[in-house]
């Protein structure tokens, strides 16, 4: 849960990149990591199989330093997209503040996108989170592929984005759209930073 | 609110700096609007211990063990 902690003067937000296998979630984090100035580069934890599929999850702590007197940290996670890692996805979603759904634009992957989106909603509900109100940004990735192989943005949006969430076209492998997506979800999460609960509520 | 790609991969320089500038501005606004500083400070302040955030994973060894267990 994202909070402004006035006691410790800390802001911590957890953002999870969700989506089907091979949609480009890890690539998003790798691009963010590649753009970090040396002095801010912590350790990106990535556990992959021999074929580069994410095994557990990726974790990128983004220490933004002190902003307005608050030590600010964003924690970026990915989930393994393959269906058989359901337990890991649930674990990673615990305490999530915002989700980036990375959809694969390839036409033949549309069913996988839908399945993953349904899986996201089910897991959020299991965590007691309302999928209708949790900050969500859609990213339609792999826009650099030939037009004949990918669905149009309109098709993807009509099929996947029934919440009318902000969406971004991206080609994460070249960095296109990665920071725009991150900026959007970060802004939404920060916009929901909670004030201290009033007494008796 | 929907937005398309604004700039492509060729414009990598300063991406993080731009992001930081936007986020800093956003945080400054939020911190100011949420600032709970009371008009007058109470005479006695009770010491409180920060509650750990359950969503933040701190013990990596335990997490790895749990995941192996769950997937086994």
Fill in the keyword field for this structure.
heterodimer, A: 201 residues, alpha/beta, 8-stranded mixed sheet, 5 helices, 8 strands, globular, B: 72 residues, mainly alpha, 2 helices, 44% helix, flat, disordered N terminus
Describe this structure in words.
The complex is a heterodimer of chains A (201) and B (72). With 201 residues, chain A is an alpha/beta fold. Chain A has 5 helices and 8 strands. Chain A has helices spanning 25-35, 86-93, 110-126, 153-160, 178-191, and strands spanning 3-5, 10-18, 45-48, 54-67, 70-78, 98-104, 136-141, 167-169. In chain A, strands 1, 2, 3, 4, 5, 6, 7 and 8 form an 8-stranded mixed beta sheet that branches. Chain A is globular, with a radius of gyration of 17 Å. The two termini of chain A are 18 Å apart. The model of chain A has no long low-confidence stretch (mean pLDDT 89). With 72 residues, chain B is mostly helical. Chain B is built from 2 helices and no strands. Chain B has helices at 15-34, 60-71. Chain B starts with 14 loop residues before the first helix and ends with a helix. The model of chain B is unreliable at 1-12 (pLDDT under 50). At the A-B interface, strand 1, strand 2, strand 4, strand 5 and helix 2 of A face helix 1 and helix 2 of B.
């Amino acid at each position: 849960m994202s909070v402004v902690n006035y006691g410790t003067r800390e802001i911590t937000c957890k953002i999870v990149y969700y989506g089907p296998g091979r949609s480009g979630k890890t690539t998003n984090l790798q691009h963010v990591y590649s753009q970090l100035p040396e002095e801010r580069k912590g350790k990106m934890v990535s556990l992959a199989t021999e074929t580069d599929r994410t095994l557990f999850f990726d974790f990128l702590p983004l220490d933004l330093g002190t902003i307005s007197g608050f030590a600010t940290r964003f924690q970026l996670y990915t989930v393994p997209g393959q269906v058989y890692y359901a337990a890991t996805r649930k674990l990673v979603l615990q305490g999530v503040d915002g989700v980036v759904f990375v959809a694969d634009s390839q036409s033949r992957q549309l069913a996988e996108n839908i399945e993953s989106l349904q899986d996201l909603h089910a897991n959020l509900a299991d965590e007691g989170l309302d999928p209708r109100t949790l900050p969500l940004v859609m990213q339609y990735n792999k826009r650099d592929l030939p037009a004949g192989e990918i669905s149009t943005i309109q098709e993807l949006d009509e099929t996947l984005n029934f919440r009318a969430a902000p969406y971004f076209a991206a080609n994460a492998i070249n960095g296109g759209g990665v920071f725009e997506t991150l900026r959007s979800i970060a802004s939404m999460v920060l916009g929901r930073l909670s004030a201290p609960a009033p007494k008796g509520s | 609110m929907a937005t398309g790609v604004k700039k492509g991969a060729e414009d990598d320089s300063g991406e993080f700096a731009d992001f930081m500038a936007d986020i800093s501005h956003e945080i400054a606004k939020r911190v100011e609007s949420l600032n709970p500083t009371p008009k007058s400070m109470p005479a006695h302040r009770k010491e409180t211990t920060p509650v750990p955030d359950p969503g933040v994973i701190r013990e990596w060894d335990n997490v790895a063990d749990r995941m192996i267990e769950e997937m086994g």
